[in-house]
Structures are given as structure tokens and as C-alpha cells.
Amino acid sequence: MAESKPKLHCAWFCPFAHRAWISMLTKGMDFEYIEQDPYNKSPDWLAINPRGLIPVIVHNGKSIYESHVCIEYIDESWPSEPRLLPKDPYQRAKARMWGDFVSKKLIPPYYKFLVKQSPEEQSEGREQFLANLLEFTKAMDPEGPFFLGKELGYVDIMFAPWSYRIYILKHYRNFEIPRTDEYRRYHVWAEAVKNHPCVKPVQQEESRVLADAKPYAEGNAKSELADAVRKGKTIP
Ligand SMILES: N[C@@H](CCC(=O)N[C@@H](CS)C(=O)NCC(=O)O)C(=O)O
């Protein structure tokens, strides 16, 4: 068991931070939640994370940041069940490969669709997102309901915050994931994730989430991520 009570620097609106939050809840950890404004790059905040991004876990006086690293750190430092990454080396590798797919193939087109303002670029984002989501769906364990089987784990947590807030794209881009046969397994997955007892508590009121997403949809959000998407750069 790890030594001191960890602190989670988080924000109610941040999907990346939700990954760490869900992981801590899934592990049943005793932790201190700190609502952090990541946009105010004060010296105190930059001392906690020199990159100035949430989430950060502060544990035994050390900072752990980057959301996928936080999930792994939580799993390794609190090795009790449930395991977020499988014990079997191939299954672990598979979880990491699909987590990487989420980071490189799902999140970027999602934001291209939401943040870009020209219809052509939005359409490109939309098509890439849908095609890649289908590939993600086809890789899911056929029984499920979660990505690798019966338990919520790493891959689920990597994409959960975008899936339970998919209504952002409905509201601002009139987009819905098709209710067709090929996406059927996706919807089973998304429902299971949304209703999981450790995912439910992090979900925020829809009107508040939509208000927070508005500057992204209107192309004037002042964040490192929105800036990178507007400039066609890799997201931070
Ligand atoms: N790659 C980072 C991304 C985290 C991120 O972009 N967090 C946003 C909030 S959702 C942030 O801290 N933004 C501060 C800023 O843009 O200045 C991770 O996975 O942890």
C-alpha cells in the first residue's frame, strides 16, 4: 500500500482529468480532491506541474502528470483489485495499444470536428472520428460490455469522458453516433461505461458542460488544446 494520502489536482470540466478521477474512484482510494484552475499559470501551480496542465496527482511529495500516466501510476501504486491494466503481458500490451489509439485516432478528430470552423474541416474531423470509432468498436471484446471484457479498465477510462459527453457534438454539430448494426457494440459499451458506479459521480450537469464547451465550438476557446487544434498542431 502506498504511504501518504494522494492529492488529485482536477477540474470538473476537464475530460483528461476525469480519467485520473475515475481511476481513483475505481480503486476505492482515499484521496483529496483539489479543484484547480489550470489556466492561471501561477508559480505555485507550475511548481506542481511545469507543463501547467491538469490532471496532477501529488503523492509522497512528488507530482505525477499526463492523464494516461496517472492511470498507470494509480494501478501500480494501489495494486489491489480491480486491476485497471490486465496482468497478462499480451492483454496489457493490447490495453496500451488501444489507449494509444484513443489518444492519436479518436481525440484529435473529435476536437477537429468541434473546434475547426470551416465546414470542410469539420466534415473531415467528423469522417475521421466516425471511421476510427468503428475500428475501435470492432476491437472490443465481443461479450463485453467493457472494452476487454467484464470489468472497467484502462481503455474504457481513456475514452469514457468523451463518450459520456458526446452530447456536446449533438448540441453544437448536430452529430450522433449512428444507431446502425456496425456501431451496436459501441452503444452497448457507452451505456455500460456511463452507468458504471465509479464513472457516474464524475459526470457533470449537461447545461454546465455545454456552456463550458461553447467557446470550443465557436472557435475562440483560450486553452492550449484549442490553440493547437486551430493551428493544426498535435494536441498537448
Ligand atoms: N495531455 C494532457 C492534456 C491535459 C489537458 O489538456 N488539460 C487541460 C484541461 S482539460 C488543461 O490543463 N489546460 C490548461 C491550458 O490549456 O492552459 C493529459 O492527458 O493529461
TrEMBL record:
<feature type="domain" description="GST N-terminal">
    <location>
        <begin position="4"/>
        <end position="82"/>
    </location>
</feature>
<dbReference type="InterPro" id="IPR045073">
    <property type="entry name" value="Omega/Tau-like"/>
</dbReference>
<dbReference type="Pfam" id="PF13409">
    <property type="entry name" value="GST_N_2"/>
</dbReference>
<comment type="similarity">
    <text>Belongs to the GST superfamily. Omega family.</text>
</comment>
<dbReference type="InterPro" id="IPR004045">
    <property type="entry name" value="Glutathione_S-Trfase_N"/>
</dbReference>
<dbReference type="InterPro" id="IPR010987">
    <property type="entry name" value="Glutathione-S-Trfase_C-like"/>
</dbReference>
<dbReference type="Pfam" id="PF13410">
    <property type="entry name" value="GST_C_2"/>
</dbReference>
<dbReference type="InterPro" id="IPR036282">
    <property type="entry name" value="Glutathione-S-Trfase_C_sf"/>
</dbReference>
<feature type="domain" description="GST C-terminal">
    <location>
        <begin position="88"/>
        <end position="216"/>
    </location>
</feature>
<dbReference type="InterPro" id="IPR045074">
    <property type="entry name" value="GST_C_Tau"/>
</dbReference>
<dbReference type="InterPro" id="IPR005442">
    <property type="entry name" value="GST_omega"/>
</dbReference>
<comment type="function">
    <text>Exhibits glutathione-dependent thiol transferase activity. Has high dehydroascorbate reductase activity and may contribute to the recycling of ascorbic acid. Participates in the biotransformation of inorganic arsenic and reduces monomethylarsonic acid (MMA).</text>
</comment>
<dbReference type="InterPro" id="IPR040079">
    <property type="entry name" value="Glutathione_S-Trfase"/>
</dbReference>
<keyword id="KW-0808">Transferase</keyword>
<dbReference type="InterPro" id="IPR050983">
    <property type="entry name" value="GST_Omega/HSP26"/>
</dbReference>
<dbReference type="InterPro" id="IPR036249">
    <property type="entry name" value="Thioredoxin-like_sf"/>
</dbReference>
<protein>
    <recommendedName>
        <fullName>Glutathione S-transferase omega</fullName>
        <ecNumber>1.20.4.2</ecNumber>
        <ecNumber>1.8.5.1</ecNumber>
        <ecNumber>2.5.1.18</ecNumber>
    </recommendedName>
</protein>
<keyword id="KW-0560">Oxidoreductase</keyword>
